[in-house]
Amino acid sequence: MMCKDEIILASVSTQRNKNGYPVHSVSRAEVFADIQSAKRQEFYEALRSGIAAEISIKIRSVDYNGEKYIKAYGHWYKLVREYALEDWTELNCTEVKSLENWMKEDGSSDNK
Fold first, then answer.
1. Which residues in 26-59 are b (16+ Cβ under 10 Å) and which e?
2. 97: which DSSP letter?
3. Angstrom distances, CA of residue 46 to CA of 1, 26, 91, 92
4. N or C end of the chain: which has fewer CB within 10 A?
5. Residue 99: count of CB within 10 angstroms of its CB
């Protein structure tokens, strides 16, 4: 398999500061992946649950650390389902419609 697409994997953890306000900590990693549209079965299974599975991303399992957000082609996606296949992990994702503040701070306007 040829991993030609560059994506950003992101995870967010929330802690409370000494005043009790939430503080978000974001970790990001750039990795190579193979991006495809969601397979028919995945699309309809997700749709039955009220979720729109829009893209399917295959990455090497060693590159994936449980991140729940993915930036691909200039759009942010949220993980709907992950599926491990030996050395590969398939991530089925839906586009995030309203961006969180940490996503807006990304600073990149490229279409990766």
1. eeeeebebbbeebeeebbebbeeeeeebbbbbbb
2. S
3. 26, 27, 13, 9
4. N
5. 12
Condensed to tens digits (0 to 9), the pLDDT of residues 17-55 reads 999 998 888 899 999 998 887 665 565 565 556 556 578
Rounded-to-integer distance, Cα 112 and Cα 97, Å: 18
> What are the angstrom distances between the C-alpha of 1 and each of 5, 17, 18, 72, 87?
12, 45, 48, 18, 11
Q: What is the mean pLDDT of the chain?
A: 80
Residue-level pLDDT at 110: 43
Round to whole Å and give the CA distance between 54 and 95.
Answer: 7
CA distance 68 to 107: 20
CA angle 111, 45, 36 (to 5 degrees): 30
